[in-house]
Amino acid sequence: MSSNSNNGSMDMSGSEEDDQMNIMMEDLRRGPWTVEEDFTLINYIAHHGEGRWNSLARCAGLKRTGKSCRLRWLNYLRPDVRRGNITLEEQLLILELHSRWGNRWSKIAQHLPGRTDNEIKNYWRTRVQKHAKQLKCDVNSKQFKDTMRYLWMPRLVERIQAAATTTTTNTATAATGCSSSSTTSTTNSYPINQTNNNIDHNIVTSQLLLPQGNISTNFGNTQITPTYTPENSSTTAVSPGSELTDCYFPNQNQSFIQQNNPIHGEFTDTLISPSGYFNPWIDYQAMVEQNNQWSDGGNGGGDDFSSDIWNAEDIWFLKQQFNM
DNA sequence: AATTCGATCAACCGCTCCGAG
DNA sequence: ACTCGGAGCGGTTGATCGAAT
Quick one: angle between helices A88-101 and A201-208, nearest 10? Predict the structure, then answer.
């Protein structure tokens, strides 16, 4: 695959010009950026500013395409780029915004200050899409979206609230009953900043989960940003064993079902789909079906993911809550 | 200890949009 | 109205690293 295959329409006639172009193409560097290149780019932008990336690349003496320079700057070198863990609040926001806008990563990224579209896209693909795949349903299917909106998101809110009320370090796990055994993090099990968390969790809950889904831009711009500190932006990424895996219906955590059931729950409104298409019975059937598949499937009793979520106890709770 | 496997993320690619000429 | 180049976006790839075997 040619690195410049999109130049097919370029009208370059004559072997001399072709040779010149070939030389230019050969000169272009690709792959990971070196420290020197980073320094050159930072230095140049500091003096001349952003924009006109192609000429910038040339003038700076970088043997890179303008595109490559732009990407490196926006996704990595930009001083306000925020690296490290994606917090629970950010995850919640991503889920909410994606449910509204779909794969409009840059638009979603605008509501997560310091986060890049690339980072959000990667998060979505590695975490969310992975689970859709494991659930054997399309990530764009109603079923999956409903699961996200009416199960995962309330669950995230619960965890955010739990984290907010738990001021001692590293106790979110105990508070929510979620296992952190699968986490690979060497620091806290949860990326949320527990000691310096000034997010208004009531705002998060009430604004994000209203059926109308009115999201305050303040949430994105103001509520999240101040929570960022170097401490919570450690090198560890989002724990793979968190958020979307072991906490849909965590074992021992009956309160989740109770809180979220359409009759008793505080998320009553959120569980009744605005469009009315969220049918607990249908989902229950799907869950049972999936559970059966996983239990006796070719994976030798189901994978970790499925067994975490839909064990017999969970099914029983669902049955109870939905009067089946 | 060596190998395999899966997760993550930086970087690239192709496409579309938009504004200038 | 049309062309062209720059910019941006979403999808995809591949290198790397840690966990599991």
Answer: 20
Residue with tokens 């959120």: A270
Q: Which domain holds residue A105?
A: 88-245+265-273
Does residue A108 form part of some domain?
yes
Same domain, A59 and A119: no
Write a three-state SS string for A192-208.
Answer: CCCCCCCCCHHHHHHHH
Give the DSSP letter of residue A3.
T
> Is the same domain home to A180 and A231?
yes
Is residue A74's beta carbon less than 7 angstroms from any atom in nucleic acid strand B?
no
Cα distance between residue A58 and residue A318, in whole Å:
62
Distance A61 CA to C19 C1' (A): 42
A137 CA, C15 C1': Å apart: 30
For chain A, which ranges sit under pLDDT 50? 1-26, 167-243, 245-324
CA distance linking residue A283 with residue A144, whole number of Å = 10
Contact A93, A224 (CB under 8 A): yes
Domains in chain A, number: 2
Predicted pLDDT at A246: 41
- A31 and A54 assigned to the same domain: yes
Nearest nucleotide, CA A122 to C1'? B9
The separation, in Å, between residue A45 CA and nucleotide B12 C1' comes to 22
